[in-house]
Write a structure and sequence with these properties.
The structure holds four protein chains of four kinds. Chain B is an alpha/beta fold. Chain B is about 45% helix and about 15% strand. By secondary structure, chain D is mainly alpha-helical. Classes of the chains: A mainly alpha, B alpha/beta, C alpha/beta, D mainly alpha.
Chain lengths: ~220, ~425, ~300, ~280
């Protein structure tokens, strides 16, 4: 009983949505089920948010290491939640956008979240350098191809690409670094991306079928074996 | 590569089939036209000298294969447009619903010849008139179209090829799943990343450091997150056997709930239900980079021996992989977002590329039925290879040697594998 | 002051790389924090003291430059601003460079836009770049702006046969028939060159399909980097040249400064933005070389590693 | 919390107030409420430096920024979800009274009662908190797995499989080439200019072979030996070029992110650069 009902639900819902693509009257079923998903996800927030608070309160109560920082999380969370739910400082009425300019929700977003996320995002510039230092090594044939392709594209992005290969005559202009870089992006890169995507398309079909038919159930009740 | 105008070469079955189809279409158009050509008694020709001609053969048709929500209007633009400096400023579309007086629906630029009216309801009747607007803003109305009730078609035949392909591939997957049941040993090529799981988890036990599992940053509405959770089921089973510690910060509350359920079941089937605790999985935040900042903090402080990065990743993939590498962890990554694969290939020890992420749980289960589905996927690849071969050959021969037959095959294949 | 700053930062970067290279010959690897430091300096230095590298134009940019350079003075050019503030950092430098080049060659320039946001960016180019640098050009004679018209591809369908039907007056309400610049122009076919700047829809691709091929008029294109590859198939038959992303703008600015030295002192955003990019790319390439050398040396010294 | 942490935070707070004051003085002339403006710019700059300090090593400043980021962003998304999904979508369909309270237009439709289902499933999810009824939470999870599998089945089949297969139909020969007059003529007219016909042909050959061998590499159930193995080898080579090239292609974008942040630090905060 514990496994039969969930597996039946998955089977019926999955099959219905696949068939709905081919039956016009059911076409907006897709939008309805996506909306159902969003509603369930909001309920899950109680579990998620509750867990976040509980973890940090425990850390605080039992004075685990770095308990001080849990205060920062709890204060930040409660502040933003109150300011957001009660729309404090929001110029409009209850129906106005939660992040309407002027509201404290909007101010906190722009003072705290925007600088933090754009700075985290910019860490990529550093990690791209350290990753290429470590990864682009001519260890074997595949790694050498990886190295050469990356090097040509990088060189093509600087003026030195043209300076180094400017001497190549026009009838062989494909071998000029900037043109070669564009060519690599337009053919081997395109071919590789396509092969991967064709594989993904098939992988999703096989995975979806396994889930719908209940062959893959490790997330629902584990295998009988 | 503009395609030269095709002259039909030798007659053949394909081309006869095309002719038949063309005939059928032709008949249905003329049939539709019949309704329009009914004697138009209501319109009195405009009395002043007709300087600007109204649009002609105005046809309103129900949009095929929809839930009765659209009417397609088409007409032949006014002949005055072809004059030297054409006096036509544009077109106006009038519509009357259930016989009520006409209202202006829309105004179009000159040269337009069709219009899709999307806000129609299937149980009322619509009739349309199109007017040419002259430069002096005077209007010249066409004949009214026959009253039309949008129909509901229950089967969308435009998608019949899509249905066919889906049937063939799913059939192959299901066929090999069923035939594999009789326990015939199935060969599956080695996937390095998956073979490395056992000793990666073993390493965590030896070093007494936790295993970190990151299921991507998308919610349960992404099929890659589901793939990550099915792999989690297998990995958690191994972790329970090796008595290692697992820690799983997640970016979505739903994923937290599902992950706890998966790990709990894995520990039960491994015979160690007591070792499981809900604190193995904890929700952090839905914000992409807030989650990355927290996970980086966990990596640097807990110094995990093994890191799994499986699921849907976006720009933050390299931040996680590089930080994981800096703490000396063995990293097994996998995603079906081609844009992030280069970063995992560069920064991680093993990477599951696209399809391998979806095949992982079947591969790890070793169950004949699950492995059968992999063979079904290979059938899909075989079909893709054959179709590409035929498609390329036919377009090459059609293009290089002007052979009509191959032109027909190429167009036919392109229509089957089109994205409508 | 910035001259010294440039020298110091280049010495720091390339001196440091040389030192690391020597260490790598002895098989020593580079620590990740050192790499982070180099990237920070390589990006911060050009922002504090503008470092620009002279760009040699690739054929796809040079073709468009030569076309504008070779056209006789007084030929008519239509420039369309079809982009929004998000694409502005990449496309605005191109707009400025191309407008400068046309006006310095004495061409008659007509400005228009298919995007509402293009209008504000067009006025920016006019007020901040064109008018201050060309005090003697006359509105309605040497240049004219007809502003924005809604209708996307519909607008193109009309202007390809009759420009004045879609734009009866210019942006200040002056009927085009009374302006001297529009005397020889009835439709797009009468322009000697059309420059389509953008990256979305409607954009350069629509200009080629709806106007370029139909009216058989040469089209030059300036696009965001991510869109450039999609336009390569049109080069060189349907499109005279393509400027792609900040690098395309920098190449054009570099060529413009070389042939018309008066522009060397003016603001060159493309080259300025390429400063940190070029330096950072060089540092990354240098580290790739250093990494490989360190690996080979370590492997050779320690026998087969 | 170790004493050194308190020391660090003390010093940083002093530095913060000091630079806030300077910034306030500097922009006092521009009018507007410069106190709040200068606070926000200085606070954003200190958070930026706190994140960058992580590149050196983990430290109290980074921990502070990280924990603040987690707390504020978690609540941010909860409020967004509440206002957009619950108030924006669910309430207008469930109760007219609440719709009026929240001033949302009530969307009357015969299907409204169906929206009880997600609410029930949502409540079932909460049963996970109790051990006895915990297994009931599998029902909503099963619903979600079914929805995701069902929705993505056709979507990926069409956009990833079908469209990619049909767009690989590229011609391997072209009439605009000189008609085939033997190997001599072929090489005498040979040119590899970026815009020439041979380059276009080479592109098509590489795309066709690349996709073909790339698919071979992904075969699971066949031994990669013999010609099949060689095709698979070419496939992995093409994939390696793909990964190397797209890695190099994105470097420019990542660098421009850092340019943006440094321009903020030197420009908006320290005023050394006008952008």
């Amino acid at each position: 009983m514990r496994q039969a009902v969930p597996l039946t639900i998955t089977f019926l819902v999955g099959l219905l949505l696949i068939v709905a693509v081919f039956i016009p009257p059911l076409k907006d079923l897709e939008r309805t089920f996506t909306l159902f998903f969003d509603i369930i996800a909001v309920f899950a927030f109680f579990l998620g948010g509750g867990n976040l608070l509980r973890v940090h309160f425990n850390k605080l109560r039992n004075k685990k290491p770095d308990w001080g920082y849990s205060i920062v999380t709890i204060v930040g969370f409660t502040w933003m939640l109150i300011v957001g739910l009660l729309k404090i400082g929001n110029p409009g009425n209850i129906a106005s956008a939660v992040d309407a300019p002027g509201s404290l929700f909007y101010q906190t977003f722009h003072t705290v979240l925007v600088p933090l996320s754009s700075t985290m995002y910019s860490l990529l510039a550093f990690f791209v350098a350290s990753a290429s230092y470590r990864a682009f090594r001519a260890k074997n044939r595949e790694a050498t191809l990886l190295l050469i392709a990356a090097f040509i594209i990088l060189l093509g992005r600087t003026p030195f690409g043209m300076m180094v290969s400017g001497w190549i005559p026009d009838s062989f202009s494909l071998l000029q670094i900037p043109n070669l870089a564009v060519w690599i992006m337009n053919s081997p890169n395109l071919a590789g991306q396509r092969a991967i995507m064709i594989g993904i398309g098939l992988g999703v079909i096989s995975m979806s079928l396994r889930l719908i038919l209940g062959i893959e159930r490790s997330h629902l009740g584990g295998d009988k074996a | 590569m503009t395609r030269p105008s095709d002259s039909f070469g030798c007659p053949s079955a394909v081309r006869i089939a095309l002719l038949v189809i063309a005939a059928v279409i032709g008949i249905s158009i003329t049939a539709a036209a019949q309704t329009e050509a009914a004697p138009a008694d209501s319109v009195i020709a405009d009395t002043t000298a007709v300087r600007v001609a109204p649009p002609t053969s105005v046809v309103a048709e129900d949009h095929k294969y929809d839930a009765g929500g659209e009417v397609d209007l088409s007409w032949v633009p006014s002949i005055s447009e072809s004059l030297q400096n054409s006096p036509v400023l544009g077109y106006r579309i009038y519509r009357s619903v259930n016989g009520n007086p006409e209202i202006l629906l829309d105004e179009l630029l000159p040269g337009e010849a069709e219009y899709e009216d999307k806000d129609v309801v299937k149980d009322s009747v619509y009739s349309y008139r199109v007017a040419t607007i002259a430069t002096d803003r005077s209007e010249y109305l066409s004949i009214t179209t026959q009253p039309l009730q949008p129909q509901v078609e229950n089967i969308d035949f435009n998608k019949s090829y899509l249905f066919l392909i889906a049937l063939v591939i799913s059939g192959a997957v299901i066929y090999f799943v069923e035939t594999a049941k009789r326990g015939k040993k199935l060969f599956v090529r080695r996937i390095a990343g998956l073979e490395a799981i056992d000793d990666a988890v073993g390493r965590a036990t030896e070093m007494g450091r936790p295993v970190l599992f990151i299921p991507g940053i998308n919610d349960m509405d992404d099929v890659q997150t589901l793939a990550a959770l099915t792999i989690l089921g297998r990995v958690a089973h191994t972790i329970a056997d090796f008595d290692s510690k697992i820690f799983m910060p997640v970016s979505r509350s739903l994923v937290m709930t599902a992950a706890r359920e998966t790990i709990k079941n894995a520990y039960q089937t491994a015979g160690r239900p007591d070792a499981y605790s809900d604190d193995m999985v904890s929700y952090v935040t839905d914000e992409q980079f807030g989650y990355v900042a927290a996970v980086d903090g966990v990596m640097v402080r807990e110094r995990p021996a093994t890191v799994f990065l499986l699921g849907a990743f976006f720009a933050e993939s390299l931040i996680l992989a590089e930080t994981g590498n800096s703490v000396g962890a063995i990293q097994i990554a996998g995603t079906a977002r081609p844009a992030q694969l280069p970063f995992f290939i560069a920064a991680c020890d093993f990477t599951l590329i696209g399809e391998e992420l979806f095949a992982a749980s079947a591969y790890l289960s070793g169950e004949p039925r699950q492995l059968g589905s992999l063979k079904g996927q290979d059938v899909g690849k075989f079909i893709a290879m054959v179709v590409i071969l035929v498609g390329v050959l036919s377009v090459t021969l059609a293009e290089a040697y002007q052979i009509g037959l191959f032109e027909g095959i190429f167009n036919w294949l392109s229509r089957i594998f089109s994205s409508n | 002051m910035s001259g010294i700053g440039v020298i110091i930062s280049l010495v720091v970067i390339f001196g440091g790389l040389a030192w690391l290279f020597i260490r790598s010959v002895q098989g020593k690897e580079v620590e990740r924090r050192v790499i982070f430091l180099f990237i920070f300096v390589a990006v911060a230095a050009p922002i504090l003291f503008p470092i620009t590298f002279e760009e040699k134009a690739t054929p796809v940019v040079r073709n468009l430059f030569d076309k504008i350079e070779s056209m006789p003075p007084g030929s008519t050019v239509l420039i369309s601003f079809d982009y929004d503030p998000a694409m502005a950092p990449e496309v605005q430098p191109m707009a400025n460079a191309l407008s400068r080049h046309c006006l310095v060659k004495g061409h008659k320039v007509v400005f228009m836009c298919l995007w509402a946001t293009g209008q504000t960016l067009l006025t920016q180019t006019l007020e901040n770049t064109i008018l201050p640098e060309f005090p003697d050009i006359v509105d309605g004679v040497d240049y004219i702006s007809v502003g924005y018209k809604a209708g996307n591809e519909g607008v193109l369908n009309v202007v390809v046969t009759d420009f004045k039907k879609m734009f009866p007056t210019d942006i200040n309400g002056v009927p085009l028939n009374q302006t001297e610049i529009f005397k020889p122009i009835k439709s797009c076919a009468d322009f000697d060159l059309i420059l389509a700047l953008g990256g979305g829809r409607p954009g350069p691709k629509e200009w080629v399909l709806f106007v370029g091929d139909v009216a058989n008029v040469p089209i030059g294109v300036g696009v965001a980097a991510v869109v450039a590859p999609q336009l390569y198939p049109y080069y060189p038959r349907q499109v005279v040249g393509i400027l792609g992303g900040v690098k395309g703008a920098a190449e054009y600015e570099s060529e413009l400064a070389k042939t018309h030295p008066r522009f060397a002192e003016t603001d060159q955003p493309g080259l300025r933005m390429m400063g940190p990019q070029t330096l950072a790319h060089l540092v990354i390439m240098a580290f790739i070389v250093i990494g490989n050398v360190a690996m080979f040396m370590a492997r050779r010294k320690g026998g087969k590693a | 919390m170790r004493r050194s942490t308190y020391l660090i935070f003390g010093v940083v707070t002093v530095l913060f107030i000091f630079s806030w004051a300077i910034k306030a003085l500097v922009i006092a002339g521009d009018g507007g409420n410069y106190l709040a403006q200068s606070f926000m710019v200085t606070f954003a700059a200190f958070l930026t430096l706190a994140i960058y300090s992580f590149l050196y090593e983990d430290n109290p400043l980074y921990k502070f920024a990280e924990h603040l980021f987690v707390g504020v962003s978690a609540a941010y998304w909860m409020c967004q979800a509440f206002w957009s999904t619950i108030v924006g979508n669910l309430i207008p369909r469930l109760s007219e009274g609440l719709s009026n309270y929240f001033m949302q237009p009530y969307q009357a439709s015969p299907w409204n009662p169906a929206y009880i289902i997600p609410v029930v499933l949502g409540v079932l999810l909460l049963t996970r908190l109790s051990n006895k009824y915990g297994w009931l939470s599998r029902w909503p999870l099963a619903f979600i797995v079914g929805t995701t599998a069902g929705l993505n089945f056709i979507r990926y089949l069409r956009s990833d499989f079908i469209v990619q297969v049909s767009s690989t139909f590229v011609p391997l020969m072209s009439t605009k080439l000189h008609p085939w007059e033997g190997i001599g003529a072929f090489f005498s007219n040979f040119d590899l200019s970026a815009t020439g016909q041979f380059a276009a042909l080479l592109t098509n050959w590489v795309i066709f072979l690349g996709v073909f061998c790339g698919i071979v590499y992904f075969f699971f159930s066949k031994e990669h030996t013999g010609t099949f193995g060689r095709a698979s080898k070419i496939g992995i080579w093409i994939l390696m070029i793909t990964f190397g090239a797209s890695f190099g292609y994105t470097v420019m974008g990542r660098i421009s992110l850092l340019v943006g942040r440094i321009t903020f630090l030197f420009g908006d905060w320290l005023g050394l650069v006008q952008n």
